Amino acid sequence: MSSRLVGVGVGPGDPELVTVKGVNALRAADVVVVPVLDTGERGRAEATVLHYVPAAKVVRVVFALNERTDRARREAAWDAAGERVAELLREHGAVAFATIGDPNVYSTFTYLAQTVAESVPELAVETVPGITAMQDLAARSGAVLTEGTEPLTLVPVTAGAAVLKDALSGPGTVVAYKFGRQAGEVAEALRETGRLGDAVWGSALGLAEESVRPAAELDGAPLPYLSTLIAPPRRDGGRGGKL
Length: 243
Fold this sequence. Notes:
With 243 residues, the chain is of the alpha/beta class. It is elongated. The longest helix has 22 residues, at 71-92. Helix 3 packs across helix 4 (108-117) and helix 6 runs parallel beside helix 7. Helix 6 (161-168) links the parallel strand 6 (152-156) and strand 7 (173-177). The chain contains seven helices and ten strands.
């Protein structure tokens, strides 16, 4: 009988934003894996999962989530995490992996599934979609992500502020993920491309320390790593102007 690994998107942090299908998948699994840093603190995925399943069912697995400079260390950590999940699959058969946001959008789950599939024969991999940070920020700020024929561009600022500036120079709404450590460069790119006025940013969405503010207030000070930015295009022509 094949083993089953399910990546479950649990949203940006607010436990009320987990879908019914996501909750059912978490509860149906034999164990639920949550990623943690090697420092051991509870992450957003774990905190969200604990609203729906007992702690005894949750298995914390260390991932090199913040390692970007030492490739050898990162690869070793991925291999160790993959082997731990493979062991759980051999023991239990059905394992869910909880990831913030959506498991198919810049998710830890993508790399985990690739690693585990190499050591677990006949592994069945499934995903349950989750609400993303850009959707949550749009709802909390009132920003409209797209209208009519507008494109939507999603950029991780870990790729560099220049990539973001290129996107901002184009049409449609631009969403930037993980921009907190380069907040000053992001603010400058918004100013240079005329996008600063309508842009908003947010962090810790749905949590006690939530912050949702106009991008015009960015002063260059570092922000939380998982900060999200929405920069809508200029919309002229009234209702339906982009149809």
